[in-house]
Batch of 2 targets.
Target 1
Amino acid sequence: MLKAAHGAGAVAAAPFLRAAWGEDTPRAPIWIMRQAGRYLPEYRELKARSSFLEMVRTPELAAEITLQPIRRFPLDAAIIFSDIMTPLDALGVDIAFSPGPHVAEPLRSAAQIHALRAPDGPIAPFVGDALRLVRAELQPHVGLIGFAGAPLTLAAYLIEGSGSKEYEHFRAFLRAEPAALHVLLEKLTGVTIDYLKMQIAAGAQAVQLFDSWAGLHDLPTYRTFGIPYYRKILEALAGLGAARIFFALGAAHLTAAIAELPCEVVGVDWRTDLRAARAAFGARALQGNLDTAILYADAATLERETHAVLDAGRGGAHVFNLGHGIWPDASPDAVARLVDIVHGYER
Amino acid sequence: MLKAAHGAGAVAAAPFLRAAWGEDTPRAPIWIMRQAGRYLPEYRELKARSSFLEMVRTPELAAEITLQPIRRFPLDAAIIFSDIMTPLDALGVDIAFSPGPHVAEPLRSAAQIHALRAPDGPIAPFVGDALRLVRAELQPHVGLIGFAGAPLTLAAYLIEGSGSKEYEHFRAFLRAEPAALHVLLEKLTGVTIDYLKMQIAAGAQAVQLFDSWAGLHDLPTYRTFGIPYYRKILEALAGLGAARIFFALGAAHLTAAIAELPCEVVGVDWRTDLRAARAAFGARALQGNLDTAILYADAATLERETHAVLDAGRGGAHVFNLGHGIWPDASPDAVARLVDIVHGYER
């Protein structure tokens, strides 16, 4: 059923898309979360001349940054360079980056949430422009991935105001003002659906919903404030031809809820063995999950641990990835070795 | 067996100690992680006049702060006011607080680890002095708890240099220099054993080992770099008359390893249902685990959610606590209500 929904043609040849749509491919395709970014000298060179927001909002720059890792490594997919906060401009929220997001006026009251602007026109159309530029440059066997932040994670930043260890303000607000939080999540869900539909129309062949702060919540809370909105988003994207990837960080205790989501691929962080994930997520493709820190180990350890992940990923479709985003001081040489190891492994 | 190890007398009457040693008491005793601290106006008054380090290192101040929440609420245990980094002075490490710990020279090489000073004399004896002062003031039915940081969490701070979202430097070091990390963990284990023995000799009736950053690791990594050292510490404390509490944060995926540790009490964070914890940790007492954020909910929700935790804690010994430390802006009135609700609940 799922396979019937995506187009043939280029897709048939692109290993990333074959695996994403559930094919148990003879080799695992690979892409890397945050592959377009700070660990690449060519990125840092651009960054020295432009602000993060300029890079995100200028299609030529975003496209160039998206393509940088593809030129350097034989990766199986490109992911558009952007940020999960990008679409929130449509709600009239003012966000700066230094380098993490800082919300000028954190949402700390129901009144602020009710006063959010209704989106007017397309959401962050420059991301669509960048996707089209990338697709024009990309070879057909390389997949193109769009993404968005999951509403509960976006709400965490909007209410807390910036990154935080415990998200005290956000978690207190969730308990003190649950009705207002639902209003916010509903608004964010609408924006996210429009934003991801636009990305698919612009050429994204897969879209990943990132729930970076899922791990803050217990299961009943996640079922109340997370899952219903994620289901709505993922259902709205069904049948549009793009594979739907859901990735939650620190979510081993939320597996039962995540397993109910309608998506083709489940991303798994480094703390869950892929065999356990295979048992939990059934016929879906798995994506992940080498500990990012292994890139700092010696070459023998890198090979052994990468093989361990590839071994664990057998028995179904597997898209290789790190278990979380690559860090700014990672070595591009280690990334090159990693891609070689993955491509050299017969599943 | 475990019960035979602790003294009778005062212990027989102290609800916290009865539950900690495994008795299925008719009411759950309660204490709160970080109960001595910033959410209390009387603490902030002292803090305005002294630095954090002065407060930790001056027995009269540390004792006063330890007693502040006991004077205000009918809590069943006091926990000594200190910090998990306190004993590291014995290794010659220079640490400041602002408010989190900042290590002047983070350990980023094997050479730095090998050069750490060997402890010379008692570890942080002012903590022992503070414990004696507290015990002299404390009524017999109120338990007294000492604590230490788990070596892998201490190593995380020492290598990273300060708190961090991802602990990139620490996790990279673990992969790049595993042998050096083992040397560091061995040193930290020795210090922790001496430090906790000193606290028990000074009057601590229970000691909690805090593994605040357990959640960073996958299970094989935790079994390699965490569990062996924790077992060594907990075994060294056996038979000294103090109940051993092990608490790891974000550790739902590490349950199988934690269940093997020799301790009387397992602390559980808010993300694991106590029924599941009961199944995993067998006959041990459970400690926890109301989501700290519930203190910000309305009174009816606070009562309902507290009852839900108390319900889940039945079927064995239960020490009520939050699922993590209380936050600085929590309301003392909500804490008063919480203590009343817990004490009013017949198990």
Target 2
Amino acid sequence: MNQLTKRKQLIKDWIYEAADKSKQSFNQTINIEEKTNRTDLVTNIDKEIEQFFIEKINAHFPDERILGEEGSGHQFTDLKGVVWVIDPIDGTLNFVKQQYDFAIMVSVYKDGVGYLGYIYDVMKNELYFASKNQGAYLNDKPLKKVEDTPLREGLVAISHRLMTSKINDDAREIGRASSGVRMIGSAGLETTRVATGKLVAYIGASLAPWDIGAGKVIAEELGLIYTQLNGEEIDMLKYNKTIVATPSAHKEIRMNYISKTEK
Amino acid sequence: MNQLTKRKQLIKDWIYEAADKSKQSFNQTINIEEKTNRTDLVTNIDKEIEQFFIEKINAHFPDERILGEEGSGHQFTDLKGVVWVIDPIDGTLNFVKQQYDFAIMVSVYKDGVGYLGYIYDVMKNELYFASKNQGAYLNDKPLKKVEDTPLREGLVAISHRLMTSKINDDAREIGRASSGVRMIGSAGLETTRVATGKLVAYIGASLAPWDIGAGKVIAEELGLIYTQLNGEEIDMLKYNKTIVATPSAHKEIRMNYISKTEK
């Protein structure tokens, strides 16, 4: 990828500028719309931040394509060439209700392989970053490879939809087999907790490429496994039921706790 | 209560000193024991911090009794006089597994009524404090009364035990009726999220007086309702199934989502 050092500096600058926009909005009236249902929200701030990234990327890297949550990027049928994956606000429900526990996520893929991943926890001022084969960092401090803790000895994060399911007890079964369930409500931040060894697994009900892109680069750089829940590779062109976990917890969850229909 | 100004300053000093002890332990090998089961833990740090508070209180307020989680305080059959309620580390499982999302909690009751309540989020350096009829504060900044948001429009925190129950779907029903479930794993920190309007309710499966004492003083000062899940007053001499919530969410949850056996 060309201009890598400059590219990394630009992305950091853009993320911090976008974070300022998100925080400034706390003093404004924001416009909230429902997308697929009343808990799937989008605000004018999500849209403005996505637009901000698109303008910056177009100005500096006009030949590269952009896959963004709010749909103002390009349409995709393949992942050839360099693709930017943007989640302007991950955890929009938290952004609206808590003004806390939301993240800005950016990643850069080349021919379907993740090269750069950024998750910025805005309210904690924690920037998680990884570059393929170059390690992962929290605010420029190297992160250690994650210990391979088994499910029984660790905490797990599981999405609201799976934990409250009326028809499927699998997620709760995993929770009962673990040390305990935690639910943050941001795929990015839940992934950073696995990446720092706080949790041994995070299971997402239906994650889009922009929910996954950055976290996958960071997680894999730290020895974690990030796949679909059935063990297949992530498909960056569709929604995925996901697991990111230590190798032990990943294996145990797939082997013991996923209904046959999932396999 | 005598020496109120001095008492408040002492408590703050002790909490910060105790927090330093908890953080220093991250560089040491800590001794972890199971209490009632493998997810109910106690460490030597919980015990040392409780002992630290007991020594300080005995030195400054020798006539006052102490109710502490780790049992090194007094035995109680009533709440007459001044009673200190101490949770040296709330969220011990988080302390051990995440080194994050745990709190030090202190409260002072007189004849069963809470007068002072402190919840210190150690890793975020956030000290929540309330004094009966004198308001509640976060790091000395006054907190606003909480808006009376209904269940449908808010996030709720629910304990692991209730969310993963095999036999009772009530908790999940509440989750589905809300905007979403969040699980932090510290009764104190979940209560501070209700106290700052981030959540509309927190439901605890089986909270002891030391899990409740400080949070109840803070919550009530901000217009929230803190009771047993069946609506009865908290009993500070036993374990309680609890709810702390906005008035609207409290009413709705009690009326619509608690099985008849609970009422």
